[in-house]
Known about the structure:
By secondary structure, the protein is an alpha/beta fold. 55% of the residues lie in helices and 7% in strands. A hairpin with a 4-residue loop joins β2 and β3.
Amino acid sequence: MYIFCMAIFTPSQRKKATVxxxxxxxxxxxxARIRIERQALGxxxxxxxxxxxxLTDSNDLHNxxxxxxxxxxxxxxxxSNILESKTRNDDDLRxxxxxxxxxxxxxxxxxxxxxxxxxxxxxxASFMQRHYARFKKQFDHYLSLPDITMPSGHLSxxxxxxxxxxxxxxxxxxxxxxxxxxxxxxxRQSVWQSLFTHDERLYVRGLYARMADFTTLITxxxxxxxxxxxxxxxxxxxxxxxxRHNQFTEHxxxxxxxxxxxAMSPTLIESELFGHKRGTFTxxxxxxxxxxxxxxxxxxxxxxxxxxxxxxxxxKLLRVLxxxxxxxxxxxxxxxxxxxxxxxxxxxxxxxxQSKTFREDxxxxxxxxxxxxxxxxxxxxxxxxxxxxLVTFIxxxxxxxxxxxxxxxxxxxxxxxLGDEYPWPGNIRExxxxxxxxxxxxxxxxxxxxxxxxxxxxxxxLTEQGTLSADALLNxxxxxxxxKLGNYEAAAAQLGLxxxxxxxxxxxxxxxx
Length: 513
């Protein structure tokens, strides 16, 4: 007896499905994502942009709608063929499953966006039950088919959790790291990889549960948005979904703990990071948990200005990264840290290692995942029009709907007072202050950087003039020694002062100039 065996895809459908399925695991900020869209849509593709970025035109939405329509037709035909077929090719099933995941995400996206726009909905049992039930119904319709085992074997709660992570990551990267220059495009792509790796299929299969083992180090000049990057990563980690209670096991907004190391004394850093026992030092009136203890397993601790960390604390942090254990100040009991460490610095850590002010073993524990934030000068050199886009972005944050009315005046002031070649030494932070100054005072006068003047000559001139107070004289002298010796530790040793005192004096010298 002859049995007709229908294939899942016709040859033309398989060719189309092979292209469409690539979108599911593609980094949305990789130029390859746009190329896949162009290839899949052909003449239906609209726009001429090569990357996704904030403030691009509305053709992005047209392309997504066209992809959804095309993929829905291919998937529905394939589902019918799967149910009727007596044989199933594993490769074809994988193509089918990949496309279904994409369609399920798009079908779920509105609800996920609502969870982010109104975080209280995450605690609304009725909303969460309805939203997950809708997702589960579609999941079962496409993937829970009779006598069929899908290649990935993923369960619906896990896929739902991945979708929520994807949406959080996209919102945090797309809406905060703006600009159409290649340096910013590479930054967005790099942050996405930090969350999902370059192989998202492997990540979803199991690597998601091990991402806390990979420390992220963010490097770049001051004012380039290193904390924005850290927050995007820290608040976009995978959080499991509990279908019994219709809720995620943790709230994403309560999972990020930031610590600026340059603003604290060594004792305060240890107390904030590791916690302390009552009576350990003056002012320790009760036991206190540190951030490493408070941070949940799915959270992240952000150590800003890691290059400022004293060597004694570097040893303790190294232990955390090696063994995941730490002790409160004044205790000998080991405690466990299960979260992720994110660190940032504007210093050249390899150079610091050469001068023995930063431990090599700690550096190599930190550098499994390195992200570099570009300077504003790099961005504008590649894409000068980004100045207008960034000013527009800043004005919208400050003025809302009135932003476009203020834009011409702000841009005119920048061009007239600074010129097109201004290097923006303070980067995005300086641009934000520039816009604020223009809104308030109608002008912006940048400070001359103290680094532009030879500190020794400046000190000599001011000393001869006799115009400095004793305090200001010490500030300038500390700055000169810092410039001469190249780092705070060497300057502190030469001056017989504490390292943080030297740094404080150097910072004050910069403000006095």
